[in-house]
């Protein structure tokens, strides 16, 4: 086995996406991305699953523009740049990304509670079936779901969306974006000129988004409606009007075939609680080898708990390396725990891996 | 290093912070809101949205608000008036709703 023979997802006859790997990383935040790098370095075929559509976990979802000052080797680095670097570092070994899918169940291949030595199967909310030898859970604060637009439930799929997957889906439409963070402003900028009109509704005067992006937006043709919130949505089969209520209580209708609610995320440990692993106060208990209470399942990063735990990205990186190297010996007891020094290229992949 | 809500929140309870918190760790007392230090993930999303600038990281609170660092914790670890157990870590303010009482420090404010 070499590190470059990573299996690509196979489209099975029954329509179920099947992925077969040595190690599955659950959570594509900093600790998970680094775990994917390390697993590749150990020559393990690796997949990484995350409920968010992009890698980076809470860094990407909550503070992509924040400067981080406590990552070793970086006197200061912007959140999104750190994530980009981690993705690039892991990319050398071609991990399979399963993004926008939430890991739901952990079983053995027969659908039962796994025992030591069993192949593990993790299935996602989209039905993808990932068969793996070991799992490293780097779930951070849990799975993110977009904060719902009040009164919006019945309009999902009929004009209301929470994530812009393809800009072209909104081409020529009157679009109302709700929110004041980076996502809201970035989408307003991206759709300006492509959509028939863009109106941004934000309940405050100030935007949390990056100042330069806000300035760009203000120079563009986006209509800004601040100190206001969506009162109700109206339409027939599809949405046609968004009623926006100002601070003074006055309600103004805006023509819209599309509403994009970018109200941030809420996080919940969710399905992990059903995996049979020891969880206390929404944290996974691990030992010094980052083992959870289920054989073959390891954990690292913010989601772990043990005496003396410090929740920092820097610590998560170390835990990810510990978890993956211990998982490597679980998968093959003949393998040494210590991976060798990366500068010595012990896995023998430096020469063949793409630069 | 959780964030802390200071005295400016008393009788304001604007709730903007509650909408921003990704882990739903801001709980509603009677006259004030409280951040659960065990549930706060230190992301800082609440700080800029507070209209009365009541929120700061625990290490950066104003001298006047220093007592509120311990008081935010007290709201969760001590038994509040009319309750028979501490709130602890319910894992989300929306699960428990408005608590409706305050800590002694807050209740005593004129």
Your description of this structure?
The complex is a heterodimer of chains A (355) and B (110). Chain A is an alpha/beta fold. Chain A is built from 6 helices and 25 strands. A 5-stranded mixed sheet of chain A has the order 1-2-10-9-8, with no helix packed on it. A 5-stranded parallel sheet of chain A has the order 7-4-3-11-24, covered by helices on one side. The longest helix of chain A is centred in the C-terminal third of the chain and has 19 residues, at 313-331. Chain A is elongated and about 70 Å long. Mean pLDDT of chain A is 90; it is low at 1-12 and 351-355. Helix content of chain B is 23%, strand content 11%. In chain B, strand 2 (26-28) and strand 3 form a beta hairpin. Chain B is globular and about 35 Å long.
The number of helical elements of chain B comes to 4
Describe the main β-sheet of chain A briefly.
Answer: 5 strands, mixed
Q: How many strand segments of chain B?
A: 4
**Segments of chain A where pLDDT lies below 50 for 5+ residues?**
1-12, 351-355
- How far do the termini of chain B sit from each other? 30 Å
Strand percentage of chain A: 25-35%
Amount of beta strand of chain B: 5-15%
- State the helical fraction of chain A: 10-25%
Work out the radius of gyration of chain B.
Answer: 12 Å
Going by helix content, strand content and strand pairing, the class of chain A is alpha/beta
Q: Main traits of this protein?
A:
heterodimer, A: 355 residues, alpha/beta, five-stranded mixed beta sheet, five-stranded parallel beta sheet, disordered C terminus, B: 110 residues, alpha+beta, two-stranded antiparallel sheet, two-stranded antiparallel ribbon, 4 helices
Can you give me a brief rundown of this structure?
The complex is a heterodimer of chains A (355) and B (110). By secondary structure, chain A is α/β, with parallel strands linked by helices.
Write the layout of secondary structure elements.
The complex is a heterodimer of chains A (about 350) and B (about 110).
Chain A: E1 10-11, E2 17-20, E3 23-26, H1 30-41, E4 46-50, H2 57-62, E5 67-68, E6 77-78, H3 79-91, E7 96-99, E8 103-108, E9 120-124, E10 129-132, E11 134-137, E12 143-146, E13 160-161, E14 174-178, H4 182-191, E15 197-201, H5 211-219, E16 223-225, E17 228-235, E18 239-246, E19 251-255, E20 258-261, E21 265-268, E22 279-280, E23 283-285, E24 297-299, E25 304-305, H6 313-331
Parallel strand pairs in A: 2-10, 3-4, 3-11, 4-7, 11-24, 13-20, 14-15, 14-20, 15-16, 23-25
Antiparallel strand pairs in A: 1-2, 5-6, 8-9, 9-10, 12-21, 17-18, 18-19, 22-23
Helix pairs in contact in A: 1-3, 1-6, 4-5
Chain B: E1 3-5, H1 16-20, E2 26-28, E3 33-35, E4 55-57, H2 66-77, H3 93-96, H4 104-107
Antiparallel strand pairs in B: 1-4, 2-3
